[in-house]
């Protein structure tokens, strides 16, 4: 099904969607890292790899034409522990 509120009109997805992350810390190669707060990804043709410890993702689909909705799949990549 469509992942949008019934009251919202689904438009064609924009070419680029800004993905906002919660900035959680995660471990990478034994070092504590903070996941980037903002990251832009070409979600139409690319898959955004999100560290498992920072997999909480919200989508900012606002634009000049108002609210947008689109189906976006985000896959979590396990973080190796040392």
UniProtKB/TrEMBL annotation:
Protein name (record): Uncharacterized protein
Q: Which organism is it from?
A: Desmophyllum pertusum
User: What Gene3D superfamilies does this protein map onto?
Assistant: Galactose-binding domain-like
């Amino acid at each position: 099904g469509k992942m949008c509120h019934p009251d919202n009109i689904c438009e064609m997805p924009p070419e680029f969607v800004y993905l906002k992350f919660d900035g959680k810390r995660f471990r990478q190669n034994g070092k504590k890292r903070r996941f980037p707060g903002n990251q832009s990804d070409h979600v139409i043709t690319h898959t955004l790899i999100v560290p498992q410890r920072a997999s909480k993702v919200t989508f900012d689909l606002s634009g000049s034409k108002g609210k947008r909705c689109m189906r976006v799949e985000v896959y979590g990549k396990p973080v190796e522990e040392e």
